[in-house]
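User: We ran a pulldown and think these components assemble together. Before we commit to crystallization trials, I'd like a predicted model of the whole complex to look at. Sequences follow.
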Amino acid sequence: MTNAESRAPAATHVFARARLPGSPKHLALLRIVLGGYLISVFSSGAIPLLMAIPARVYPGTRSAFPLGFEEFAAQHLVRPLLTVGLVASIMLCIGLLTRTATLVTLVAYVITQNYYYRMITAHDDWLYFTFFLLVFLFAPVADAWSVDARIRPRRSRPATDYRWPVEWMGAWLALLYVAAGVAKLFPLRKGIVWLNGYSIQGMVANEVHESGFYWILGHSAFDYQVHWPFVVLSWVAVAAELSAITVLFWRRAVPWVALAIIGMHASIAMFGITGFLNIFLVASITWWEPKWFGDTTPKPAADPIPDAPQAPNPSPAPELAAS
Amino acid sequence: MIRRIVRVAVVACLIANCLDLTTSIIASPVDRWYDTPKRAAWEWAIQLALVLPLVLLAARQAPRAVAALRALPVPRNALVVCGLFFALEVGHIALRLETYPFSPVAMYSNAVTTPPPVVQDTWRYLVIDHSKTLQMLSFERESTAASQFLTDFDYRTAAVATQYSRTRAVFSLVTEQLAAQGLPKPLIVRMPYSTRTGVPIPGPMERFEPLLPGHARDKR
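Assistant: Here's a predicted model for the assembly, 543 residues in total across the polymer chains.
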């Protein structure tokens, strides 16, 4: 950890944090974990099952892709792209030809998940990870723990090159949770009705047979016709989601917000909606402290690349140094 | 300190007012169970008038925000591409508009005004497990490694199987996976259950035989 970082106040907003030094290992861990997660996405049986059904476009869903392209993709592209994406995400995970692998993974992911979304209407991991892959395209994600770094010596870079991608992805993650809270509360006339708890009560009653409580206890966790617990759950869920905004302004809020969101997803999973906890656990690596990785100052390349321009001495932003 | 708190609260109220207006512009699919009351003309007037201070404030802060963006140690291409994507997502959130790959994250945001009925129907797979016991198959449970007994579904496959449970493809897949374990063909039945406890209500159950491809989308 540099002196500047140790002196930087915890109550820094995301713009200020993006100018602090980061760690190549932090980005590398994110690349490896996200690559591993995407391997499970591309090898999932969900899309082949949708094709076997064969599912039709869900009414009310919209896509940025033209319908003609979607039809072409559904017939000719989606199935091969699952294989291409699987290979590319393995390469991303191990850090082999990382930039190309990221681009191929992004293209395969966006097209295949478009099909998945249009057939099932749920926003899923694509909402989190499309932006992450987009940031990966511009970030030095393969400077540590990668085959690329083994083959070619690492360029010396300013330590901030490892920080801004993490902060941007972290801000995106916070934005999504704030958006979920906003969607529940706005328009306010609808939001006030949502807070009456009937929405969650209906969801829990619908999913009772899928819930962990049912399979452990043999019945529901409590009498689901009793209303007040669902009022409390609704308010707590919105508070947990909206609390994510503090992550943008206050670094010290991260553990509390993360705990609140993990608690929310764990509870929802116990009530029968699985899937989002694992996505959050992967994405929330962006909220980890770079200093945990110990390597916030890049080492110069052992064998510098000939003719490569010398990177400037890594130094924090002047105003942070002054603080 | 108090002045700062008041300032933050005022700005938060102005943003909430603005969001209240923008989220009302386009009807969202999550509104299908609740018809949001319309605003009176005077409400529109007040709310639109309150947008003005926010616009002035934003205009005053804009040079600072642009300077802060320019000061970021981010490559220009990344700033443009990722910044545009970020801005488009913010726009979709503000308008409650879902256009893949952008979303207002509105799952489970539908407002409901009545409690669920005391007795509810559901379509369920019944299977005879290894201990010759008739049990209800839960795709969601099967998608969790710790409680996976009869199938090898991941959570995405489980979500598809739940949503399209009465289609021939899902039925065939489940039958295939059960057969691989030496278990007989499952039954799909319409089953009433108590929403108080989740316990099925005894009585004759309607059986469903999936024959047509793409027959049923909804599990209920």
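The longest helix of chain B spans residues 41-71. That may be worth checking against your pulldown data before setting up trials.

User: Thanks, that helps.
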